[in-house]
Amino acid sequence: MEITNVSEYDAIAKQKLPKMVYDYYASGAEDQWTLAENRNAFSRILFRPRILIDVSKIDMTTTVLGFKISMPIMIAPTAMQKMAHPEGEYATARAASAAGTIMTLSSWATSSVEEVASTGPGIRFFQLYVYKDRHVVAQLVRRAERAGFKAIALTVDTPRLGRREADIKNRFTLPPFLTLKNFEGLDLGKMDKSNDSGLASYVAGQIDRSLSWKDVKWLQTITKLPILVKGVLTAEDARLAVQAGAAGIIVSNHGARQLDYVPATILALEEVVKAAQGRVPVFLDGGVRRGTDVFKALALGASGIFIGRPVVFSLAAEGEVGVRKVLQMLREEFELTMALSGCRSLNEITRNHIVTDWDLPHPRPLPRL
Ligand code: FNR
To answer: In a 10 Å sphere around its CB, with 0-12 CB exposed, 13-18 middle and 19+ buried, how is residue 163 labelled?
Structure first.
């Protein structure tokens, strides 16, 4: 059957992948309330389209940290992509490059920074988890720089791994034929089987729970690369991120995999944008599955969005072709949304093109018919 939207890859991936792998990719934390809310919240934002504007030419290009890309749709870091497809991160890197957009490589990729760089040209960011052993971190950052990565996305919402119950039930672990390639030479590339989630145990053993704002400054002493702080959900932290020298902020709840009952990212976005006061760009990830979602995020002040699960699901279904198709479908849907809203370029997308339930003076539940 022909695939006509991004979400359809989820069901195909579920059929194709071993249960342990699919569950790892799909799950959220605990009750998975935030997981559903990341999607549902988009459906409570409606359009106020403008008509009779010449939309025969639409320009979706934009600039992120000085890098020109073809559209404000980028790839979030998702770990262990070779569990989805043998080509894993190579396929994702090639698909992103072909689409003229940015791929973020996870620290926990099953391909190394050097291997991903060797797939060819492309603008790539490196996502960093800070290990207790700072020599490991310094080495890794240096390798990412040398491999031509253009920014560090510092993940700040994971001092411990969120409680993902499917992974606990499945005793999730990295399959023995794969390694966390960036850490292979450091003897940290394997994940032991444990009697709960192998990843949760790995995180508890290796990741630095004491990470704090002073480390954002420390990171700037070991690299010249711009730092995006990934995992901000409040105005308070947005201000601190700007003060700490961040080059940008990613509003993210880690795909609802960390703290459950945090708001959907699309609901947290506006307060972060206001607090950033235009001093740094603000991006969003979480639940973006449609071009309309991209438009809503931009209308609320995001400079761009990232997608996570659609990449691993489409990889599982069709490898590089699948990831290309996901990016193409989102591009076309976003372009259509712009045209039907009367916007010809990204700077024509305004707050007035949408209405949210928090815009109403006295929110009332809609009458049930
Ligand atoms: C992630 N995410 C993530 N984030 C990160 O900083 N480092 C990582 O290694 C991973 N790994 C990872 C694996 C899988 C399977 C998922 C689903 C997510 C979070 C990711 O970058 C992003 O925040 C969310 O995936 C965005 O939400 P959607 O698009 O998946 O709804």
So the answer is: middle
